[in-house]
Write a structure and sequence with these properties.
Layout lengths: L3 E6 L4 E2 L4 E2 L2 E2 H13 L3 E6 L7 E2 L7 H8 L1 H6 L3 E2 L10 E4 L5 H4 L4 H12 L3 E5 L22 E2 L4 H5 L10 H7 L3 E2 L9 E4 L2 E4 L5 H13 L1
Pfam families: DJ-1_PfpI
Protein name: Type 1 glutamine amidotransferase domain-containing protein
Family: Belongs to the peptidase C56 family. HSP31-like subfamily.
């Protein structure tokens, strides 16, 4: 039976008091998409509203996997993303949330997303996220009332990285928030590749970590 992966993307296109333009950061979707495709997986897209998501960092389109995503079937499929409430997520072996600043807008508290992530984890499927995407794991409570990230080894965009990227635009610090909910946070040097798997949860620090997150998710699914 074909392995199915659901990529859940933000619908936000602006953030912060200065209305900074944002979206899904191109390599954080394109690099995992390329790895999942090479693994032979069926890849589907969902968004919170069902509207077409936005892409950020199009200036990186000269990267081979980024370009292949844009001109191949990746972006074409992403534009036709299904509304998350219309998806039977139980049919997927893994879910993946890419970053960009956009998830910091609409994925902090979204109840359905939190429910989907908790149920995906508790049925033994794989949950992956990269950069600001791990904000989707924040405020997820399991059936025993504990936070999903409590006691888990987690990586995300770091305080040091945010200080030199979008500090005036974000309403809170992601590393701090994850740590406050019990995450064992792993921060590498800013902008260096850093992905980590803890059981079925795979997270990554920044755009350079997106490929590694996908590779670790594939290794878990193949095991």
């Amino acid at each position: 039976m074909e392995t199915k992966v659901l990529i859940i993307a933000s619908n936000a296109n602006a953030i912060g008091p200065n209305n900074r333009r944002t979206g899904t950061f191109l390599p954080e979707i394109a690099h995992p998409y390329a790895e999942f495709k090479r693994a032979g997986y069926q890849i589907d897209f969902a968004t919170l509203t069902g509207d077409t998501p936005y892409l950020d960092a199009l200036f990186l389109a000269d990267d081979p996997d980024n370009l292949a995503f844009l001109v191949g079937d990746g972006w074409a499929k992403m534009q036709k993303a299904t509304k998350l409430s219309d998806v039977d997520v139980s049919q997927y072996a893994a879910i993946f949330v890419p970053g960009g600043l956009a998830p910091m807008v609409d994925m902090v508290e979204e109840p359905l997303l939190k429910k989907v992530i908790a149920e995906t984890y508790e049925r033994g499927a794989v949950v992956g996220a990269v950069c600001h995407g791990p904000v989707s794991l924040l405020n997820v409570k399991l059936s025993d009332g504990s936070y999903l990230v409590n006691g888990k080894n987690i990586a995300s965009f770091t305080t040091a990285e945010e200080d030199n990227y979008a500090r005036p635009d974000v309403s809170f610090d992601l590393q701090t928030a994850l740590t406050e909910q019990g995450a064992i946070f792993h921060a590498a040097e800013p902008w260096s590749a850093n992905s980590i798997a803890d059981g079925q949860i795979v997270t990554g620090q920044n755009p350079a970590s997106a490929k590694g997150v996908a590779e670790k998710m594939i290794a878990i699914l193949a095991a």
